[in-house]
Write a structure and sequence with these properties.
The protein is of the alpha/beta class. Helix content is about 30%, strand content about 10%. It has one domain: Peroxisomal Thiolase, Chain A, domain 1. This is Ketosynthase family 3 (KS3) domain-containing protein.
Length: about 280
């Protein structure tokens, strides 16, 4: 019941899916990585239709204690409903949440042949590792910036084409600051930015899939949800944040960003597993 492959296996059995069945593990970016892998399975011809998403049930004492020890959780206890405050100057950490989301992906020509109208076109994706610290982001947001640039290049888009960003925006002090800098640097011009974690909290491995689905809905309905609890945007951020009410805007291209914890930190004196000398 606790095997990492269990969610994919259960879905495969329920749906009678006979193609590749696998689980991605890139921490809080796992849901987004799953959708990206699905695109690769389609373009390579291994699959005709792919169910891709993420699920997480993390509200346990052990998980909560671990994140609390890292100083990652909000300590705002007077009104828990306002504790998650992405990009707000008073943010102090994220709130653990549980969620699941699954997207159905197929090639455009196959959908057209079957008379199905797609909700959105998956134009491109990008990923990167900043190789800096197991939990702290690189001070200059190296990995986030490179991932956004890679996604734009893969989609053959420029920064001017992006109208909306569904940001990772967890409500942590450093995380939001690094992501805000990355977005304003790589996407100058002010695309509409929102973080749905203000309303939905942080569902860790499921978050990327949930936010990908919400980004599709924004494209479909030309509606960008506001960032809940964002009352005083951090003045240090050069972002066009959606606050208070949803924005009714035509969106031609949108970007969903996900950021996860990195490589485990090595202890002094212990060789890196990839560089350890071979036994003679």
């Amino acid at each position: 019941m606790i095997g990492p492959s269990t969610p994919a296996s259960e879905i495969a059995v329920a749906c009678g899916a006979l193609g590749p069945s696998l689980v991605t593990a890139t921490a809080c970016a796992s849901g987004s990585t799953a959708v990206a892998v699905a695109r690769d399975l389609l373009t390579s011809g291994q699959c005709d239709i792919v169910l891709a998403g993420g699920t997480e049930a993390c509200n346990t004492p052990l998980i909560a204690t671990g994140f609390a020890q890292l100083g990652a959780l909000s300590t705002r206890c007077d009104d828990p409903s306002t504790a998650s405050r992405p990009f707000d100057r008073t943010r102090d950490g994220f709130v653990l949440g549980e969620a699941a989301a699954v997207l159905v992906l197929e090639r455009a020509r196959d959908a057209a042949a079957c008379g199905r109208k797609p909700r959105a076109l998956f134009a491109g994706c990008g990923s990167a590792t900043d190789a800096h610290h197991p939990t702290a982001p690189h001070p200059e947001g190296r990995g986030v910036k490179e991932a956004i640039r890679a996604a734009l290049a893969d989609a053959a888009l420029t920064h001017q084409d992006v109208d909306h960003v569904n940001a990772h925006g967890t409500s942590t002090l450093r995380g939001d600051a690094i992501e805000a800098d990355a977005i304003s640097t790589v996407l100058p011009g002010g695309p509409f930015v929102t973080s749905t974690k203000g309303a939905l909290s942080h569902s860790l491995g499921a978050a990327g899939a949930v936010e990908a689905a919400l980004t599709v809905l924004s494209l479909q309905h030309s509606l960008i949800p506001p960032t809940a609890n964002l009352e005083s945007p951090d003045p240090a951020f050069d972002l066009n944040l959606v606050t208070k009410a949803a924005a009714n805007e035509r969106i031609n291209a949108a970007l969903s960003t996900s950021v996860g914890f990195g490589w485990p930190q090595r202890r002094p004196g212990i060789p890196h597993p990839l560089t350890a000398p071979r036994e003679q």
